[in-house]
Amino acid sequence: MKQLTILGSTGSIGCNTVRIVKMFPEQFRVKALAARNNVALLAEQIAAVAPDLAVVIDEKYAEDLKARLPRNTKTEVLFGPSGYQAAATMPGVDQVVVAMVGAAGLMPTLDAIAAGKDIALANKETLVMAGEVVMQAAARKEVQILPVDSEHSAIFQCMEGHRRKDLDKIILTASGGPFLSKPSAEFHCIQPKEALKHPTWQMGQKISIDSATLMNKGLEVIEARWLFDLPHERIEVLIHPQSVIHSMVSFRDGAMLAQLGVPDMKGAIAYALSYPKRLDLAQPLPDFAKIGALTFENPDYEKFKCLAMAFDALKRGGTFPAVLNAANEVAVMAFLSDRITFVQVPDTIKRVMDGHACVDHPNLEEILAADKWARAEAAAVIDGNIPTNK
């Protein structure tokens, strides 16, 4: 039986992971759950899977969670960075599912790797910020990092059984989000509630906004560079609105392989949990006769500037991806709280990146410093008070 920690258990990926565990109780047991502040849902998950440990963001939410649990519960409740570290490094855990959103996932992932835990990675920001550091740490500890994002899982599956040296390039597919057909001249009128309505996937708020700007795809490009050890020239993005082909690979002889399925994250999650086996999820197959046609188009990099900036950050390397990610997180939160407009999201990121003095091949301390600087700079841009110290 595989013992699991789920970091980010109350988010979309985390909830689906809990569902899979409940479907296959003879194969998986959850030893630790970690969330942020959704204590009501976390209490339900504790009742469902009875972990040894549960973690929340701070003491206030920890007390709230304890009050919701039965007096005879055996689940220990911790909070804060030390609590997340305890969950990530818990003795007896075989695999840590990193489903936290944003930069918050980096340190628990590194803690889990240092403890020799295999990783099921849904937190793309970990590799965007510190891909070189994380992959080197995983190699030293001989830790396996299995992708959970549907696109990277698709690439991983397509490459199974094939020689890495025969790989030509990878093609990440993107639905195009809710504004694929909307003229860019109308982007200034977009409201958060519109941007949250993704046409094919059910996701959390931050990822939904990233999908609307195509930043999510840009972050996935950077993640793919580290997961599959390929330069940016061999990673492409293709718009595929039906979201049936999750991604593709091409080989040097001209052959291409694609992984197809309904747009449901349970397949990718289950494959990371059970690899190299496959679980009987009873998932429906795509109804190709009803779909009729699968269509594709190239991304419009002028219309979706965030995707262009992500490629640029990857090309420039060093601390630029960490700065891109930090500025984006701040800008997205500002958009969701109606402090800036949709078009000001990429504008904010660009202004922060333009002011950054890059550090090449940064260590962890330098990455965290760049992240902190970019957040402060993005907040200052949003507030209209640009610091002079770059």
Kindly describe this structure.
- The chain has helices at 12-23, 39-49, 59-68, 80-88, 106-114, 124-141, 150-159, 192-195, 205-213, 215-227, 266-274, 288-291, 305-316, 320-336, 344-354, 364-383, and strands spanning 2-7, 28-34, 53-56, 76-79, 95-98, 118-121, 145-147, 167-174, 235-239, 245-251, 256-260.
- It is of the alpha/beta class and 390 residues long.
- The mean pLDDT is 95.
Q: Could you tell me the radius of gyration in angstroms?
A: 20 Å
Mean pLDDT: 95
Helical residues, percent: 40-55%
Largest sheet at a glance? 7 strands, parallel
Helix count?
16
Structural classification: alpha/beta
Across the major sheet, the strand order is 4-3-2-1-5-6-7
The topology string of helices and strands comes to: EHEHEHEHEHEHEHEHHHEEEHHHHHH
Q: First CA to last CA: what distance?
A: 52 Å
